[in-house]
Write a structure and sequence with these properties.
By secondary structure, this protein is of the alpha+beta class. The chain has one domain: YjbQ-like (Jelly Rolls). Helix content is 22%, strand content 38%. The chain is built from 4 helices and 10 strands, in the order ββαββαββααββββ. The chain has a 5-stranded antiparallel sheet with strand order 3-10-5-7-8, with helices on one face. The chain is elongated, with a radius of gyration of 21 Å. The two termini are 19 Å apart.
Length: 169
């Protein structure tokens, strides 16, 4: 039984053993294609298993403005369909103000490449996914997988993954 101290519950010894904990990892990915779906699920499941977290959350976040994070089925025809949808909506050979280096004045580098299509595609995709951890495992549906979606490859990419929750006893 917990007692109240100044209006707050006092944690039992058992509750202190289950204190919140977290683990962070940066996942490096080398992409090979202009548009590509990289399945991160196995690496994320390993991170969760190694973290000692029994119940909590895994947040997966891309560190780039021309990538996205999605959860869906790893079925090649579906991924091809989604790639075609992105290409149809925001074609690589389209006209984008972002690519006009005579008009653009911010966030430019010497090695700037025309990638307005990739930025526009990324704007319709989430940059992160928050997933449940239950029983020490990443909780996904039968066909669900977690993907980094490359939209401006090939490139070197990084994903930040933070698992947080109640540790094992």
């Amino acid at each position: 039984m917990e007692t109240l101290t100044r209006g707050l519950p006092r944690r039992s010894a058992r509750a202190r053993r289950r204190a919140s904990t977290g683990r962070h990892a940066r996942i490096h990915v080398t992409t090979r294609h202009a548009t590509e779906f990289i399945d991160l699920t196995d690496r994320l499941e390993t991170l969760v298993a190694d973290s000692g977290i029994r119940f909590g959350f895994l947040n997966v976040q891309t560190l780039h403005t021309t990538t996205g994070i999605v959860v869906n089925e790893h079925e090649p025809l579906l991924l091809t369909d989604f790639q075609a949808l992105l290409e149809g909506a925001m074609p690589a050979d389209g006209r984008y103000r972002h690519d006009d280096m005579t008009a653009r004045t911010v966030n430019m580098t010497d090695a700037e490449r025309p990638n307005g299509h990739a930025h526009c595609r990324a704007l319709v995709l989430p940059s992160a996914a928050c997933l449940n951890v239950a029983g020490g495992r990443l909780l996904l549906g039968r066909w669900q997988r977690v993907f980094l979606v490359e939209l401006d490859g090939p490139r070197e990419r990084e994903v930040s993954a933070l698992v947080f929750g109640e540790g094992r006893q």
